[in-house]
Amino acid sequence: MQLSSLKVIHKDPFTFLQESTESANTTIEDEDLKARRFGNLSINSIWQPAARPQNSEPKQAPNSSVQTRKQEIIKVTEQLIESINNGDFEAYAKICDPGLTSFEPEALGNLVEGHDFHRFYFENALSKGNKPVHTILLNPHVHLIGEDAACIAYIRLTQYMDGSGMPRTMQSEETRVWHRRDGKWLNIHFHRSGAPSVPIK
């Protein structure tokens, strides 16, 4: 029985909150496209700008490979968060570079390098799957940096039950830098502000 779950929610100027989906079925529209559909018409097809200056080129819509790579980054980020929710250090270590660097509330403003600092929390404080944890990634935004690097920024909301059985929510703001090596995405750096990863009892 899986006790943790994760959702991704995207916000845009046309809807306050789009419908969220479970991580296994997550789909996104490319943030760079910014075209929302009304029936069979998109905003881009309804509104046409004045004639372009003669020397300007039309802006190209993002191709499917760009959208696919952005989707990959969101998916691997979801997998990393799920490994934290489940207290699964082995899965976490497979997704993170051995030289992972981070700034996070638990490190008290210090730059931490490697896995040992994080392993302590997995072994002593994370849920190990014995308590329900629900995580939502709000409005993830992916920057692609060439073919083999990317950065994702998002708000992370974590719902859990505290020691007295009351439901609680924690919020953090996270940025993660990913590097692809031998066809595999690895988290090489992250910065988290706000709540720590370990639920407050």
Automatic annotation (TrEMBL):
Keywords: Kinase, Transferase. Residues 49-69 are annotated as: Disordered. Residues 69-196 form the Calcium/calmodulin-dependent protein kinase II association-domain domain. GO terms for molecular function: calcium/calmodulin-dependent protein kinase activity; calmodulin binding. InterPro entries: Ca/CaM-dep_prot_kinase-assoc, NTF2-like_dom_sf. Coiled coil: none annotated. SUPFAM superfamilies: NTF2-like. Residues 49-68 have a biased composition (Polar residues). The keyword Kinase applies. Pfam families: CaMKII_AD (PF08332). This is Calcium/calmodulin-dependent protein kinase type II delta 2 chain. It comes from Anabarilius grahami (Kanglang fish).
